[in-house]
Amino acid sequence: MTRRALVVTHGGREEAVTATAEAVRELEAAGFETLRDGEHGTDPAHLVDVEIAVVLGGDGTILRAAEITRGTPIPLLGVNLGHVGFLAESERDDIGEAVRRIAARDYEVEERGTLEVRAMLPGEVEPILTSWALNEATVEKADRDRMIEVVIEVDGRPLSSFGCDGVVMATSTGSTAYAFSAGGPVVWPDVDGMILVPVSAHALFARPLVVGPRSVLAVEVLTRSTSAGVVSCDGRRRFDLPPGARVEVRRSGVPVRLARLGRAPFADRLVSKFSLPVEGWRGRAPAGPARTGTP
């Protein structure tokens, strides 16, 4: 039986074109039939019997691959062509080794939880939006010059109301993405929970929150808000929110599957992805008497 692999890539960049050609060549040499995203759109019918998706690019490309494969058992193996590539498992120079491990089925599959996102209008029964997110759903201001007025809720109970630039509601996976940049906590991916992080809140008390998997987070755009809002799912799917709209986020029952080649602790990944490079760094000279003579 022919083995099939989906190849998803960051289009347009010369490096991505070269890396994709190499990945396809290596996969076909290993006996795989390759299917490129875009050849058949995102129709799940064309993903039958696909064993794995090899994703070449940064985290944004992996999020696009998650859209394509959502609802299927296909795991994603990311090859980093970006800057951080936190979700990626391999680097550009290791494509051949990654394909060898894929061919030998020498990898583990890790399930990551996702979010179900719904937006409602006051008095309406049907949602105006139903979507999902692997990293985060954000409610943001539509007007860059004005704050958005919101009330945040957990399990139907209002906690606080304030003006802000936005509110991030993230998975544990997304804790190292937008929520991280907004000052939220880093949460280990095996923690089954959700995070709420206000962004630039004009309030004395607007702390990040971590809640359990059965909780429901909500952000309501108050009718007094002088700015409309926008809800964004993984920074890829954006929808307008009029004042009075309410966005509810809960744990989804549809996970995303990531292929892992190694068993390094999550702390090692944090250090390797977020630590500043030290090559050529001299630091600050120690205090002491000035030296004289030829340096």
Order of strands, main sheet, comes to 8-7-18-15-10-11
Number of strands: 19
Average pLDDT figure? 89
Please name the CATH architecture of the largest domain.
Sandwich
CATH topology of the largest domain: Tumour Suppressor Smad4
* Gyration radius, in Å: 22 Å
Question: Assembly type of the shown chains?
Answer: single chain
User: Low-confidence parts lasting 5 or more residues at pLDDT below 50?
Assistant: 287-295
Instruction: Write the element-wise H/E pattern from the N-terminal end onward.
Output: EHEEHEEHEEEEEEEHEEEEEEEH
The structure class reads alpha+beta
User: In whole angstroms, how far apart are the ends?
Assistant: 69 Å
Q: What share of the residues lie within helices?
A: 10-25%
CATH class of the largest domain: Mainly Beta
CATH superfamily of the largest domain: Probable inorganic polyphosphate/atp-NAD kinase, domain 2
As for the number of domains, it is 2
| Main sheet properties | 6 strands, antiparallel
Count of discrete alpha- or pi-helical segments spanning 4 or more residues: 5
What share of the residues does DSSP label as strand, in percent? 35-45%
Shape: elongated
